[in-house]
Specification:
Ribosomal Protein S5, domain 2; 14 strands; nucleus; mRNA 3'-UTR AU-rich region binding; ExoRNase_PH_dom2
């Protein structure tokens, strides 16, 4: 993960500010930076989204392809995650430097989406035991400026919201089954993303914790808690990262903060997605992908 070198004086300044609920950029401990969310930015995908959170820039593309259901879940489709850490994001990702982080992020996403309630995978089934839709979710890190996991989870939810899957019919003729794909690009199904969780990362700094930490704040934190929260405030998974330790009381406080902040995050994200949806093709695209 990208890192920044701070002097001891800078670290003390950041830590003391957090104790007073006043961060370097003027935010409180539970405040997010303004995020830019844009959907339908890549033309050759089933769904896509780009999220910019501070200096963190994430691009997600979803590709729906037909495949065979897994043996243990013959009546469901499934998701596959791939994370590419661009060398442009930080020099540390050059060569094989970003592979370890990419694997860690992908494993975290698998864990977050392991809950049956997160995505209705049964809606991706075409023909039990024979055909289903497989959603390949490709995540590209364009710029790394802190709070990667939260930004990625927001981008993944936005891309899944934007995903259109062609309608198919199973035709039975003379004992054999054939798949007929609709030619109409508007004849498609949409995923229900109401229960798709977002990740809220809480970084312990001194005796307090903050959300949406910058690179400088991450350098002052020895331990963080990654919490995936649904729009209803339900906690679906939790993971500790960092070398430091967290006492039970701190973990409980961070969980409560994560659930509270997570609900607000979902409301704000859904509002933006609904606004973009209502504009349709008249929406003005921004950024270099516009």
């Amino acid at each position: 993960m990208a890192s920044v070198v701070l002097s001891e004086a800078e670290k003390v300044y950041i830590v003391h500010g957090v104790q007073e609920d006043l961060r370097v950029d003027g935010r409180g401990c539970e405040d997010y930076r303004c995020a830019e969310v844009e959907t339908d930015v890549v033309s050759n995908t089933s769904g896509s989204a780009r999220v910019k959170l501070g200096h963190t820039d994430i691009l997600v593309g979803v590709k729906a392809e037909m495949g065979m259901p897994k043996l243990e879940k013959p009546d469901e489709g499934y998701l596959e995650f791939f994370v590419d850490c661009s060398a442009n994001a930080t020099p540390e990702f050059e060569g094989r430097g970003g592979e370890e982080l990419g694997t860690e992020i992908a494993n975290t996403l698998y864990r977050v989406f392991s809950s049956e309630r997160s995505v209705d995978l049964k809606s991706l089934c075409i023909n039990p035991r024979e055909h289903c839709w497989v959603l390949y979710v490709d995540v590209l890190l364009l710029e790394c400026g802190g709070n990667l996991f939260d930004a990625i989870s927001i981008a993944v939810k936005a891309a899944l919201f934007n995903t259109r899957i062609p309608k198919v019919r199973v035709l039975e003729e003379e004992g054999s089954k054939e798949i007929e794909l609709s030619d109409d690009p508007y004849d498609c199904i949409r995923l229900n993303v109401d229960d798709v969780p977002c990740i809220v990362t809480l970084s312990k700094i001194g005796y307090r914790h903050v959300v949406d930490a910058t690179l400088q704040e991450e350098a002052c934190s020895l331990a963080s808690l990654l919490i995936s929260v649904t729009s209803k405030g339900a906690l679906t998974s939790m993971k500790k990262v960092g070398k430091g330790s967290l006492d039970p009381e701190s973990i409980f406080e961070m969980m409560e903060t994560g659930k509270r902040v997570g609900k607000s995050l979902h409301i704000a994200l859904q509002k933006v997605l609904d606004e973009e949806e209502s504009l349709g093709t008249s929406r003005q695209k921004v950024g270099f992908l516009g």
